[in-house]
Design brief:
The protein is mainly alpha-helical. It has 6 helices and 2 strands.
Length: 136
């Protein structure tokens, strides 16, 4: 259980957090000459970078797996049918992760004790994340 959660967290860091962080630093450096311009500019750059990382993650989805899910042998499935989700649904799921953040990140920890191992985002879009034995 905890191992699956760690892999899910690592996949999120690899596909969203790290790219968004690097992109925001690049944009800040190009526009303001420093990686952290501060104030409203930094907030807007950070939000835009998260959005871009989420879109890229969604567009890279094949068979319910982004590149990070493939790397860590995870797959996102529809909760009812068990079928892999589409890129559009992955994008909606990435957007729904705002609920995980809005709950002071408790939503990201929720799979540790939830019977379906779902984050709040998973509950919103009716998905589950499973471990796969081999890359899909």
């Amino acid at each position: 259980m905890f191992t699956l959660w760690l892999r899910r967290a690592a996949a999120y860091i690899l596909r969203i957090v790290l790219p968004a962080s690097l992109l925001s630093q690049l944009i800040g450096t190009l526009l303001f000459g420093k990686s952290s311009p501060g104030g409203a500019a930094e907030t807007w750059i950070g939000c835009a970078s998260l959005l871009v990382a989420g879109v890229i993650s969604a567009l890279s989805t094949r068979n319910g797996q982004s590149w990070a899910h493939q790397l860590l042998r995870l797959q996102v499935l529809d909760q009812e049918s068990g079928a892999p989700i589409s890129a559009l649904r992955m994008g909606l799921r990435e957007l729904a992760h705002l609920a995980d953040f809005a709950s002071l990140c408790i939503g990201f920890l929720w799979p540790l004790w939830d019977s379906q191992r779902q984050t709040f985002a998973d509950k919103i879009v009716s998905t589950v994340v499973v471990s796969v034995d081999r890359p899909q």
